[in-house]
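From the methods appendix. Each design record in this collection lists the tokenized structure first, followed by the designed amino acid sequence. Records were kept in a plain field format so they could be parsed without special tools. The example shown here is representative of the layout used throughout.

RECORD:
FOLD TOKENS (632 positions):
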């Protein structure tokens, strides 16, 4: 039936688009005012009817109340993010999307925890990680901290699984008890990155990438010009990944009351223990102290039934889904305090607000935050690998203007604030990063691919007349003009000098010292703090507290997020269409390809923008890390 609903929604949307285009072309404003509300009303009531058909209570639970001894189910399907792109209400998240991945906002987990620690009706919490797709180590740590808060408040957090990957097990390790199926697997494998290197293939095809860069370690374009990693890139990766694994293993060890070295032994001893004998992965995990028991599903359910209410009709434990529970909580009110603006994804110049950070769009959000009544300080939450130099500078400058107006701004680094992401953060009064944030990558590059040799192989030529040499000098069908290449190199050098100059002023370091720390080198938050690139280590909460302190706010101040807003009718259509897109346009094969290529949707859009026929030389100069914080 869901497929029928989707077909209906798509058909209604096509009809609506047709009428909108028709009205726009005719320019009949009066007719538009009459017809559009009728169409919108029809769409609204049609969707509402569909929602009524399929919106059934989950697990025998009525959202009207939460009874004593009810189990709370935290079912995490999808990735943890700072800010979601589409809604997560009970209907859209579980009925329409069903088992499809969805974005899980960290702030929602925090709000859930805030309510649960004060709720005596819920004692047991079940964490379902079967559909969990991970996130950055920073986001994993934030959720792990909330699970610890629940345990500290006397709640019992239980998790059972058939399979635990690294990201899943990180969260599972923070539970009170971890159970694995007797035939299940706990798969720890360490960290690593092995991107494709296309240099030799592109040479064979006749494509010249024309990579221009400033920064010895700026390896963002290396896969396009080399057949293997450079020694500088390998050295930087080793330093970064070893430190991230140290944080990852130390967190798990602390939660499980074991030594970090035991995780290394769990991985390294596998060949010896399994050689020439029967090997049970689940038993191995139990003996290593990484899980508390091996249980079949019915045995796990039987344990829950001992301490929680059982529905007489369904003969199962009464559960409430965490999204249903969250909807019962009052929305936080804002009177006076700190506003948070999220910059998540690759950076563009313009108005992008979904799957990327638009320079102009973020300026608008910062200005809206400044104008919001009661806002005394700002936190910009950066989770970006960088991108457009112009977009990065637009945002940095607006942060500077905000500070000049007497409103303190603190930059809070999430999973990644690298290259252009660091450029943004450098404009703030202070920078707070997690120990596992991926940051730095202070460097610049330009990419101007030329396919002229491909055309030569096909005996295809271009010819014609231009009034000036620059017209067509960046035509990818022709070799890159040496004069333009010289201009681009000079531009890259100048932007790099501006970059380290901005960092020098912001961090009170000499340009020479910044240049030593820059050169495109990537650091963890802990390493950046040791080198003076970050003021304090901590999460978003610490950044908010610091911003409030700088603004002279008393305890008990409020916090609000300032997000892109849409008219009600536009938001309704966007919500429905994004949900439909998640169902019909995000097959597992695409998700696997993304993981294989180690690239995100916003990065793909960014790359396509560089390859656009309308791109101009200034757009080719980028402050992008082309790296991922999703390493688990």
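DESIGN:
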């Amino acid at each position: 039936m869901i497929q029928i609903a989707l077909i209906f929604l798509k058909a209604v949307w096509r009809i609506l688009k047709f009428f909108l285009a028709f009205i726009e072309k005719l320019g009949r404003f009066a007719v538009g005012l009459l017809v559009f509300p009728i169409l919108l009303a029809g769409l609204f009531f049609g969707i509402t009817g569909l929602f009524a058909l399929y919106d059934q209570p989950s697990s025998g639970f009525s959202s009207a109340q939460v009874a004593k001894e009810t189990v709370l189910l935290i079912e995490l399907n999808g990735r943890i993010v700072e800010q979601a792109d589409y809604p997560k209400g009970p209907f859209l998240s579980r009925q329409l999307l069903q088992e499809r991945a969805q974005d899980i906002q960290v702030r929602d987990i925090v709000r859930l925890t805030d309510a649960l620690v004060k709720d005596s009706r819920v004692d047991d919490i079940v964490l379902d990680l079967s559909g969990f797709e991970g996130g950055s180590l920073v986001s994993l740590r934030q959720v792990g901290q909330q699970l610890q808060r629940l345990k500290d408040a006397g709640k019992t957090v239980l998790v059972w699984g058939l399979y635990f990957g690294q990201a899943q097990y990180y969260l599972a390790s923070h539970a009170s008890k971890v159970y694995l199926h007797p035939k299940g697997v706990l798969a720890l494998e360490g960290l690593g990155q092995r991107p494709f290197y296309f240099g030799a293939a592109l040479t064979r095809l006749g494509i010249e990438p024309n990579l221009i860069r400033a920064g010895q370690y700026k390896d963002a374009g290396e896969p396009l010009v080399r057949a293997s990693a450079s020694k500088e890139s390998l050295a930087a990766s080793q330093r970064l990944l070893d430190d991230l694994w140290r944080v990852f293993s130390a967190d798990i060890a602390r939660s499980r009351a074991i030594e970090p070295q035991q995780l290394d032994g769990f991985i390294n001893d596998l060949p010896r223990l399994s050689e020439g004998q029967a090997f049970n992965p689940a038993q191995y995990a139990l003996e290593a102290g990484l899980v508390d028991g091996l249980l079949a599903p019915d045995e796990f359910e039987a344990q829950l039934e001992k301490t929680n209410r059982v529905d007489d009709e369904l003969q199962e434990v009464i559960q409430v889904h965490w999204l249903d529970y969250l909807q019962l909580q009052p929305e936080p009110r804002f009177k006076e305090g700190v506003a948070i603006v999220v910059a998540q994804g690759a950076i563009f110049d313009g108005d992008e607000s979904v799957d990327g950070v638009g320079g102009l769009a973020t300026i608008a959000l910062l200005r809206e935050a400044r104008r919001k009544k009661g806002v005394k300080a700002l936190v910009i939450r950066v989770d970006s690998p960088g991108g457009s130099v112009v977009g990065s500078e637009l945002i940095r400058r607006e942060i500077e203007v905000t500070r000049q107006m007497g409103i303190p701004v603190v930059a809070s680094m999430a999973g990644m604030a690298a290259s252009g992401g660091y450029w943004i953060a450098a404009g703030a009064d202070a920078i707070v990063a997690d120990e596992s944030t991926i940051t730095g990558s202070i460097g610049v590059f330009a990419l101007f691919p030329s396919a002229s040799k491909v055309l030569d192989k096909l005996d295809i030529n271009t010819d014609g007349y231009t009034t000036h040499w620059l017209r067509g000098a960046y035509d990818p069908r022709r070799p890159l003009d040496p004069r333009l290449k010289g201009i681009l190199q000079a531009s890259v050098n100048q932007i790099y000098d501006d970059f380290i100059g901005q960092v020098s002023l912001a961090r009170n370091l000499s340009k020479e010292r910044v240049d030593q720390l820059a050169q495109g080198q990537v650091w963890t938050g802990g390493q950046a703090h040791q080198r003076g690139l970050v003021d304090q280590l901590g999460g978003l909460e610490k950044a908010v507290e610091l911003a409030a302190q700088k603004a002279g706010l008393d305890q008990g101040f409020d916090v609000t997020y300032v997000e892109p807003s849409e008219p009600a009718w536009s938001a309704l259509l966007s919500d429905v269409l994004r949900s439909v897109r998640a169902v019909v346009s995000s097959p597992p094969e695409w998700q696997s390809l993304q993981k294989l290529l180690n690239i995100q949707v916003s990065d793909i859009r960014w790359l396509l923008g560089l390859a656009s026929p309308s791109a101009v030389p200034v757009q080719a100069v980028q402050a992008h890390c082309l790296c991922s914080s999703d390493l688990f």
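APPENDIX NOTE: The radius of gyration is 26 Å.
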